[in-house]
Amino acid sequence: MVAKNTQLAVVMPVYNEEVVIRDVINKWTKELLRLEIDFQIHVYNDGSRDNTLSILNRLANENKNITVHDKLNSGHGPTIIQGYRENSDAEWLFQIDSDDGIGIESFEDLWEKRKRFQFLIGKRIRSRQALPRKLISILSRVIVSILYGNKIYDVNSPYRLMRTESLKKIIFSLPDNMFAPNVSITGTVSLFNLKCYEISVQHRERVTGEGSIKRIKLLKAVLQSFYQTIIYRFKIKKYFLF
Q1: Measured between alpha carbons, how far is residue 89 from residues 83, 124, 163, 220 in Å?
Q2: What is 73-110 written as a DSSP string?
Q3: What's 60's DSSP letter?
Q4: Which has fewest Cβ within 10 Å: 6, 12, 48, 113?
């Protein structure tokens, strides 16, 4: 759990990323130190079956800014919900995936603009994307636009800086088993008209490691995600009022 009054808690879910995880964490550590931020990187090992955990433990022993959380595999969504909740005492939460798909290049811009916004997110620019995932992105955007509003384009981007005080009620209202909680968080930001900022970020396709979801399970997962996103929309106002 993050120390109280920490300026920034980085939440990074990890699954079978032994090839790149050291470089990814070292790059982010170097960048956050350069920006003179009071930060802690919280890496959530989601039941990796390779050498990811041992690499993470060595990194944590070498660097006081890294905390490793080892857990049973529950999937990407429940893992980031856990990470958000356990670090909700930090002033800011930043989520980034561990596959090096989006680099450090755009973070400084988000950080410099943070005081004027409650929610800052990276809109992914892709050179190519598999057709099934492209269709999922489009459908997610349409559902969020219809049910929540359309202030933000890339509703499921894993590159998001959030003012914890403004988002805490949303984070704790999410179902524990939500497959794609970032979609509902983004939607709720639009629904309640929170101050948001979206910047384009370059997204590189995965070349190493292993995705957290197999292709054969993709359709089932997508249907579950859409269902949860819709149900959450109709329950959200019962949880809290802004």
Answers
A1: 11, 28, 11, 35
A2: ---HHHHHHHHHHHTTTSSEEEE--SSSSS-STTHHHH
A3: H
A4: 113
Report helix, strand or coil for 5: coil
Q: Cβ contacts of residue 207 below 8 Å, gap of 6+?
A: none
Q: Please tell me the distance from the alpha carbon of residue 87 to that of residue 202, in angstroms, as a whole number.
A: 27
Q: CA distances (Å), 211 to each of 3, 20, 205, in order? A: 31, 13, 11
Q: Do residues 239 and 169 lie in contact, with contact meaning Cβ atoms separated by under 8 Å? A: yes
pLDDT at position 242, please? 44
Is residue 43 within 8 A of residue 25, CB to CB? The reply is: yes
- Number of neighbours of residue 4 by Cβ within 10 angstroms: 8
Contact 91, 168 (CB under 8 A): no
Report CA torsion sign: 96, 99, 101, 105.
positive
Task: Supply the pLDDT for residue 139.
Answer: 87
Taking a C-beta distance cutoff of 8 angstroms, is the pair 124, 204 a contact? no
**Nearest one of 4, 169, 30, 28 to 91, comparing CA atoms:** 4
Average pLDDT along the chain: 90
pLDDT, tens digit, for every residue of 95-117?
Answer: 999 999 999 999 999 999 999 99
Residue type, 74: S
Cβ-Cβ contacts under 8 Å for 235 (sequence gap 6 or more): none
Other CB atoms within 10 A of residue 121 CB: 28
pLDDT digits (tens, 9 = 90+) for 132-152: 777 888 888 999 999 999 899
